[in-house]
Write a structure and sequence with these properties.
This is Bro-N domain-containing protein. InterPro entries: BRO_N_domain (IPR003497), ORF6C_dom (IPR018878). There is one protein chain. The chain has 257 residues and is of the alpha+beta class. It folds into three domains: 105 residues, no CATH class; 55 residues, no CATH class; 61 residues, no CATH class. Helix content is 43%, strand content 17%. It has nine helices and seven strands; from the N terminus they run βββααββαααααββαα. Strand 2 and strand 3 form a beta hairpin. Helix 3 packs antiparallel against helix 4 and helix 5 packs parallel to helix 7. The longest helix has 25 residues. The chain is elongated and about 120 Å long.
Length: 257
C-alpha cells in the first residue's frame, strides 16, 4: 500500500493494475464519516450505478498467510470513489470530488479535463425533469439555458469539475410558471336530442327545446317547488289543469268501486 493525503488526512491506497484503489474504510475516513461502514451503506443503496471498473471485492490477507475469506474487502477506483462522494452529503464531499479528479488526471496523464460521467449525467437529467415538471417549461428550453451557461453543445460536454456548479445553476434557475390555458371565447351551444330505441336500435329522434323539461311523474312536484321554474301565469294554468283532472278522477271513483 502507498499513501495519499487529502485535507491533512493520510489515506492508504491500493495499487492494482497500475491504478489507485481505496478501501471503504479509507473512503469513510476521507469523507469525514465516523462510522467506517458509511461508504458500504452508500454503495449498497446505489450499487446498480457502479461498474466493474469502479469497484470490486479483493482478498487482502497479509502476505505470508493462507488466504482467509475474512479479509475479503470491497475497494473503489478513483472513478468509484468519485461516485461515492457524489452520493455523500458530508461537508468535505465536494472538495473530495475535486481532489479525486485531480489525482485521476495525474494518474492517466490526460491533458484534457474529464467530462461528466454516467452518474453525473443521470443527476443532471433528474433535476432537469423535476424543474420541467414543476414549472411546465419544456426539457429542451432548460437544457438550452444550461448549454449557454457553460458554452457547450450538449450537457454531456460539461466538465466533471463543473458538475457542482451545473447542479447549483439548475437548482437556482428561475423559470416562469406555466401560463393558464386560454379561455374559450367562442359561444358555447348545446343541443339536447331525445332518442327512441327499440331492441337496441334507434328508431326515431327529436330535438328537445331549450325551455323543455323532461321529468318523471314522481319528480314533478319537486320541480313545482323549485324557485323560478315557472312564472305566475304558468303556475296558474298548471293549478287549473290539476284541479280539473282531480275533479274528473273523483267522478270516476264510484265506477271503479
Amino acid at each position: 500500500m502507498t499513501e495519499l493525503s487529502f485535507n491533512n488526512v493520510e489515506l492508504n491506497v491500493i495499487s492494482r493494475d497500475n491504478q489507485i484503489w481505496f478501501t471503504s474504510v479509507e473512503l469513510s475516513k476521507a469523507l469525514g464519516y465516523k462510522d467506517s461502514k458509511s461508504v458500504h451503506r452508500i454503495y449498497s443503496r446505489y450499487s446498480d450505478e457502479f461498474t466493474e471498473g469502479m469497484t470490486l471485492v479483493v482478498n487482502l490477507t497479509p502476505s505470508g498467510q493462507k488466504p482467509d475469506p475474512a479479509f475479503n474487502t470491497r475497494i473503489f477506483s478513483l472513478r468509484g470513489a468519485h461516485l461515492i462522494a457524489m452520493f455523500s452529503r458530508t461537508p468535505v464531499a465536494k472538495d473530495f470530488r475535486r481532489w479525486v479528479l485531480d489525482v485521476l488526471d495525474k494518474e492517466t496523464g490526460q491533458s484534457q479535463p474529464l467530462t461528466l460521467d454516467d452518474g453525473q449525467k443521470k443527476a443532471i437529467r433528474e433535476i432537469v425533469g423535476s424543474k420541467a415538471k414543476s414549472s411546465g417549461e419544456s426539457h429542451r428550453s432548460i437544457y438550452i439555458s444550461l448549454h449557454h451557461h457553460f458554452s457547450v453543445k450538449e450537457y454531456g460536454d460539461i466538465l466533471q469539475s463543473d458538475f457542482d456548479e451545473a447542479m447549483t445553476f439548475l437548482e437556482e434557475l428561475e423559470l416562469k410558471p406555466a401560463l393558464p390555458a386560454p379561455e374559450n371565447k367562442l359561444p358555447f351551444q348545446t343541443t339536447r336530442i331525445m332518442l327512441l330505441m327499440e331492441n337496441g336500435k334507434v328508431t326515431d329522434s327529436s330535438v328537445i327545446p331549450d325551455n323543455a323539461w323532461i321529468v318523471a311523474p314522481d319528480r314533478f312536484t319537486s320541480i313545482l317547488e323549485y324557485p323560478g321554474a315557472f312564472n305566475l301565469q304558468e303556475m296558474t294554468e298548471i293549478a287549473q289543469c290539476a284541479q280539473r283532472r282531480a275533479i274528473e278522477l273523483a267522478k270516476c271513483l264510484p265506477r271503479l268501486n
